[in-house]
Amino acid sequence: MFFKGLKDKFKRKAGYKVLVKQLNHPLVSQKQKSGVQSIGCIVDLDAFSDANHFYELVEEFALRPNAIKIMGYKRYYDKNSPYATPVFSDKDLGWGGQIENSYALEFLSREYDLLINYYNTDNLLLQLLSVKTSARIKIGFPDVDKNLNDLILATPLSDFKLFKKELKKYLVVLKEI
Question: Which pLDDT score, from 0 to 100, does residue 80 have?
Fold first, then answer.
């Protein structure tokens, strides 16, 4: 039991080092054209339980039905329980800041025009996934590290309609939709 705690502590320390390194040298998206064609969403399912609201953005921005990819985070989850959204947790942190979850690795393998970081807590795994995701524009909340997002929307996490309205307003201003 003692060694498990020590192992987790070293994994977290290595994860923070990778996070700081990635924040200093962010990934650059290969897609440089304007317009939103694909959206990635990283959602804290402990704070916002209904991730299906993000599929409303398909109609809002006139996207293809498969243009949105959602990755959920739960502090603890049972691998045998069915979840509508692919989920990763703290158990999926590997050595060297690597995320050892097949759903998360699939999420990271894609490039997005827009990444929505839908969480408002400083959580190592959520931030690592955000930093490692290749996206042209990253959108998030003010309670998280300011270097993580390009656009910060100060809306309540629980009010998705207001978030959607503000997101659309700023994307129109930036001439992305």
Answer: 65
